[in-house]
Specification:
Keywords: Signal. 66% of the residues lie in helices and 0% in strands. It is mainly α. The longest helix has 36 residues.
Length: 348
């Protein structure tokens, strides 16, 4: 895939009318967080910056997602992964007297900067800053699941509610469970034509879950609340790849690389399929697929609009550049993970 980058002619994007960018911004879904603290700060705190190379792929992906939400560009994360790899490579050479071998040969600083340049040149045409922020948010949702989303975030996914219904929904899901004191509010919310009937599957599950919890004893309640925060099936995909990577390094199993991680994500999230049915799936799988496909759908929508005015050469260049970015973000995550593993060896 890396050989394609050098042949890209980024000037292809420039003749496209930049007026399209404002149209894309109008199409962008907007999440209003209100007065809540940055919901991604637990995973990426802008005040503290990126963490040193981590040894947990879930933490790496959540930090990446948070940086997308905050910066509106993948450039910062790519440079972070490269900087951490360089730090560990230098430390390994100094300590061991030989180079560390965990970076793909093509994935150099020059290559990364070319990748970023191509992305930046498409930014105004595809409104990539807003796309990246939304993608980061959807990526975080896809990993943590609706059970860990804030009331404001859950409310932002319900476009059919009136302002009054949205406020009531937000108030209801702020509670971990319902008691008899909530019955009047619930009856009003469940009334014909009112809020509950307008909710998405995720919104209905959020309310119904709290209704069920109201019938549980304390032990069952604690267990259910804890289970709802365990994340989605993406965690299983990342954990399995993490074990394979470590096993490959230790020689206890076949080696695993970024291509294997990409294959696992595409297969597990059914990203090669144009449409997926999620209504009957467990929430852990439904959330992973719903939010992952939302990212894919948003980019497809942008490219479809652009295709009305772009030449075939321009479309090919844009599709290649966006695909390369997604593929290389997976490479960067694998690079950070392996840098973290090698760094751990140095600390022993």
């Amino acid at each position: 895939m890396h050989s394609e980058l050098n042949s890209l002619k980024f000037c292809y994007f420039r003749p496209i009318r930049l007026a399209l960018a404002s149209a894309f911004l109008a199409l962008m879904p907007t999440t209003v967080i209100g007065d809540e603290a940055l919901p991604y700060a637990e995973h990426f705190n802008p005040a503290n910056g990126f963490k040193p190379a981590q040894r947990n792929l879930t933490a790496i992906f959540l930090q990446m997602a948070g940086s997308f939400e905050h910066y509106g560009t993948p450039a910062n994360y790519l440079r972070h992964a490269n900087a951490e790899a360089k730090r560990v490579e230098a430390a390994w050479l100094k300590a061991k007297g030989k180079p560390a071998k965990f970076r793909p040969e093509y994935f150099t600083e020059e290559y990364i900067e070319k990748l970023i340049t191509g992305w930046n040149q498409m930014e105004r045409v595809l409104a990539l800053e807003s796309f990246t922020r939304t993608s980061g948010r959807q990526m975080r949702y896809a990993i943590i699941g609706s059970g860990s989303m804030t009331p404001a975030e859950l409310a932002s996914l319900e476009p059919n509610l009136t302002a009054e219904e949205s406020a009531e929904f937000r108030r209801l899901v702020a509670k971990p469970y319902f008691t008899k004191d909530d019955f009047v509010s619930l009856e009003r919310f469940y009334a014909d034509g009112k809020g509950h009937h307008k909710l998405t599957a995720i919104g209905k599950e959020a309310v119904n879950r709290r209704v069920r919890r109201g019938t549980m004893d304390q032990r069952e309640l604690d267990k259910d609340i804890e289970a709802s925060k365990e994340g989605t099936t993406i965690l299983s995909i990342l954990s399995a790849h993490q074990r394979r990577t470590v096993g490959g390094i230790n020689g206890t199993s076949a080696a695993a690389n970024a291509d294997d991680l990409q294959t696992a994500l595409v297969k597990g999230l059914k990203l090669a399929e144009d449409r997926v049915e999620v209504d009957r799936l467990p929430s852990t799988e439904r959330d992973a697929l719903t939010f992952s496909h939302a990212i894919k759908g948003l980019l497809d929508q942008r490219l479809k609009e652009i295709s009305k005015q772009a030449t075939p050469e321009q479309m090919k260049a844009m599709k290649t550049a966006t695909t390369l970015m997604f593929e290389n973000l997976i490479v960067a995550s694998q690079l950070e993970f392996e840098a973290g593993l090698w760094d751990e060896v140095l600390q022993r």
